[in-house]
Structure formats: structure tokens, C-alpha cells
Design a protein that fits this description.
single chain, alpha+beta, Alpha-Beta Plaits, 2 domains, 6-stranded mixed sheet, two-stranded antiparallel ribbon
């Protein structure tokens, strides 16, 4: 009898498995809820970025355009000159372009758009009447004044509609921001409650390993607390054993998603705080479109990976910070205020300057780097001149003290139109610079015109 009861009683393994299934179910629920919440927040933010902000900007710009057009209409009533008429129609064309902004349709303001277009056409037709009379030389002061009154009424109505549009867009933006805050708070509370429930169940079903489970629970609890406080970069290390792997992965994934929302539109490198890839591309496009003479310097460290494998990520980060400081100080001292320094990730940096500063800046950077980098190595490795580490194929090899390579591309002799052209040349030139086995900068001024320094 007792034996039968023993056989029917769930084994410890079965309890653990059941507890694991329950934890996985709760974790999946958290993940699904997080996805739904994040998607709602994404849609709200998308509405702000694609509708509200463009409408606010468009309405403000259209008011400025209408104001200028009205000024030219009044000037023409007095001067009757062709130049003022040209300026008037130029502003009219600009208004037509502005009213074609797709945000009107996305925001459901197509009826308002058509009304504004109708009013603007009527405004232009009234002005054409004055032009016709001027051409026939039949205008009179009284008739001109009779035209100005409808012009003013029409313009006032357009201003009223545009201010109404701007205020409505601002109200919509404010409502969406408040909704985002409310949904974020609700999502955090629900995620915290479910996570704590999952941890409690895990402790109950995994009583045989109280110390290990307790440690895991404390880590996960601390992680959820920091997530709630927005400390996404200070999560404690989460164990990845068979008990907590699924929950830990879900928390890390959820943290990553929440962090991406928190850092929306922020492009700065988190370590060096230098502008990132998007800012680099915008700066390059600005100079290309402005047809400015510039020098694009692509900076990379040779054997940085081996250094990181040997000394760890902490010292690797210290080296990255050192390089960023050298670049910023070099630009401040030897460059000019328009120079740009960016960090596109890892050990890759970008410096954009004018061609006449290439030699001075490059030599300064190389000199400071070569003088400073040995201090980041141990005395033994520094004296030996190399370290023992593994290459990218996991083979043990010796690697010399790190060097810095600078690939410089200018548009002095080579016409450059797109950032992609600069990127291709920079990648090729960087490989050549790194093959020199020393700190060096290589300047590309045109086809078959690479210059090693």
C-alpha cells in the first residue's frame, strides 16, 4: 500500500521539470506581452515622428511662406515690377511643394490640405486679376484697394487653418507622449509581477538546490529591479544553467528591446560618447553635397583583438578611450572647429578634416599613440615586444605591440559623390596601411596615387 503511494508520488525530477515548464510558460507570457507592448509603443512613436513632428514643421514653414508671398503681393501693388512678381510666384511654388507633404494624408488631414490648396488657388487668381489690369494699364487705386481686401481675407483664412493644424498636431503629440509614459509604466509593473511569480515558483519546485536557486533568483530579481529603474547597462550577470537559461535569455532580450526604445535617436557611442555611424554618414553627405574639399580619415588599430583576448575587455575599453582622447585633443590643438571625430564601433574611428591638416593631424595621432600604447601592456610583454595570444582561427601566435593605421581619402583629385564610394576606398586603403607592420597613414588622392607616410 505504502509502495503504491510512493510510486504515485511525483519524483524530484518530475517536480523540477514541471516547475521548469511553468517558468517557461510565464517567461513566454512575459515575452509576448513585452512584444505587444513594444509594438504599441513603436506605433505611437512612429506616429509622432512621421506625422505630428512633420506637420508641426510643415505648418510653421507654410505660414512663413504665405507671409512672404503676402509681402510680395503688397509690394507689387505699389511697385508693379517684374522682379516682385517673380518672387511672388516663387513663394507660391514653394507653398505647393510644402502642402504635398505626405504627413497630411497619414495624419488624416487630407480635407484640410485640399481646403488650403483651394484657398491658395483663389489667392493666386485674385493676384492674377491685378496682373491682368496692370498689363492693360487699366488699374485704378480704388480697384486695387478692392482687390487687396479679398486678398487679406483669403490670407487670414489660410493662416487660421494652418495655426489650427499646428495646434492640433501639438495636441496629438502631447497625447501620444502621455500614452507612451502610461503604457511604459504598465508594462514595467506587469513584467515585474510575472517575473517575481516565476521566481517564486522556481524556488518551490527546485528546493533540492536551495543555494544555487537562491543565487539565481537574487540575480534575476536584481535584474528586474534595475530594468524598472532604467539601469539597462548595469544588469548583474545571469546564470545560464538549466534552471534559469530561458528566463535569463528572455530578460536580456526584453532589456535589449527596452533599451533600444530608451535610446531612440541617440547615435553616440556608449563608451566614448563620440558621434556614431549615422552622424558620420550625415557629416560626409553634407560635405559631399556642399562640394567642399575634405579629407576622410579611417582609423583602425592593428592587433587590437589579440590584445583584448590577452588582457580582457576592460583594458581593451581603456585603449579605445585613449584613442578617442588622442583624436579629440589633436583636432582641438592642430585642426579647426569644423573638423569632425566619430566612433563607428570597436576600434574603428573616423576623422574628417581639410586636406591641409592631414599631415599634421596624422603625425600627431601616430606619435601620441606610439608613445602611450606600451603602458597598457605588462612589463614582461612590453620588454619582449609582443604578446602570446590566439588569432582569428584560434591558433596560438605572437602579436607585436599594437599600431595605429590611418587611411586618408581626399576629393582633391578624385571626384567623390556618395558615401559608399568613400567607404570602399577607405576599406581597401586601410588593409594596405595595416600591412605596413607599423603605425602609418596612407593618403589616397587619386587612381594609382597612394602615398605611404
Amino acid at each position: 500500500m505504502g509502495s503504491k503511494k510512493t510510486r504515485n508520488k511525483p519524483t524530484l525530477t518530475q517536480r523540477l521539470f514541471l516547475g521548469y515548464l511553468i517558468m517557461v510558460a510565464l517567461t513566454v507570457f512575459v515575452g509576448v506581452y513585452a512584444i505587444i507592448s513594444l509594438n504599441e509603443l513603436r506605433q505611437i512613436n512612429k506616429g509622432i515622428v512621421e506625422v505630428d513632428l512633420p506637420l508641426i514643421e510643415a505648418s510653421h514653414a507654410m505660414i512663413e511662406t504665405l507671409t512672404a508671398q503676402d509681402i510680395y503681393a503688397r509690394k507689387y501693388a505699389i511697385l508693379k515690377d517684374n522682379y516682385t512678381e517673380t518672387l511672388f510666384w516663387g513663394r507660391s511654388t514653394e507653398f505647393e511643394q510644402q502642402i504635398s507633404n505626405p504627413a497630411f494624408i497619414k495624419g488624416g488631414y487630407n480635407h484640410l490640405k485640399e481646403r488650403l490648396r483651394q484657398l491658395h488657388d483663389e489667392y493666386n487668381n485674385i493676384f492674377k486679376q491685378e496682373l491682368a489690369l496692370t498689363t492693360l494699364k487699366k488699374e485704378t487705386r480704388a480697384f486695387t484697394e478692392s482687390l487687396m481686401a479679398p486678398l487679406q481675407m483669403n490670407m487670414d483664412e489660410q493662416f487660421r487653418l494652418l495655426r489650427q493644424l499646428e495646434q492640433q498636431a501639438r495636441d496629438d503629440q502631447q497625447q501620444k507622449l502621455m500614452l507612451t509614459n502610461r503604457k511604459s509604466e504598465e508594462s514595467w509593473k506587469i513584467a515585474l509581477i510575472i517575473s517575481l511569480a516565476s521566481l517564486a515558483l522556481g524556488l518551490g519546485f527546485a528546493s533540492f538546490a536551495a543555494r544555487r536557486i537562491s543565487r539565481s533568483v537574487q540575480q534575476l530579481s536584481e535584474a528586474t529591479r534595475r530594468i524598472g529603474q532604467g539601469e539597462f547597462d548595469r544588469l548583474p550577470p545571469l546564470e545560464t544553467d538549466y534552471v534559469t537559461r530561458s528566463l535569463g535569455d528572455s530578460i536580456r532580450w526584453m532589456t535589449k528591446q527596452l533599451k533600444e526604445i530608451g535610446e531612440m535617436k541617440l547615435d553616440a557611442n556608449p563608451l566614448t560618447q563620440l558621434p556614431g555611424t549615422i552622424a558620420v554618414e550625415r557629416e560626409l553627405i553634407k560635405r559631399l553635397r556642399g562640394q567642399e574639399l575634405f579629407a576622410f580619415c579611417y582609423i583602425d588599430l592593428k592587433d587590437f583583438k589579440a590584445f583584448g583576448d590577452r588582457y580582457g575587455f576592460s583594458k581593451g575599453s581603456a585603449v579605445i578611450m585613449m584613442v578617442s582622447q588622442i583624436l579629440v585633443e589633436a583636432v582641438q590643438i592642430f585642426g579647426n572647429p569644423a573638423d569632425f571625430v566619430g566612433h563607428i564601433g570597436g576600434d574603428d574611428f573616423v576623422l574628417i578634416t581639410e586636406p591641409q591638416y592631414i599631415q599634421t593631424l596624422s603625425e600627431k595621432v601616430i606619435k601620441e599613440f606610439d608613445q602611450t600604447i606600451p603602458s597598457y601592456y605588462d612589463k614582461e610583454d612590453r620588454g619582449r615586444g609582443y604578446i602570446i595570444s590566439k588569432d582569428r582561427k584560434d591558433n596560438v601566435d605572437s602579436f607585436p605591440i599594437m599600431t595605429i593605421s590611418i587611411a586618408v581619402i581626399t576629393n582633391e583629385q578624385t571626384p567623390l559623390r556618395e558615401p559608399s564610394e568613400v567607404a570602399v576606398i577607405a576599406a581597401q586603403l586601410k588593409q594596405y596601411a595595416k600591412s605596413l607592420h607599423r603605425s602609418a597613414y596612407v593618403v589616397h588622392k587619386g587612381p594609382q596615387d597612394d602615398k605611404d607616410k
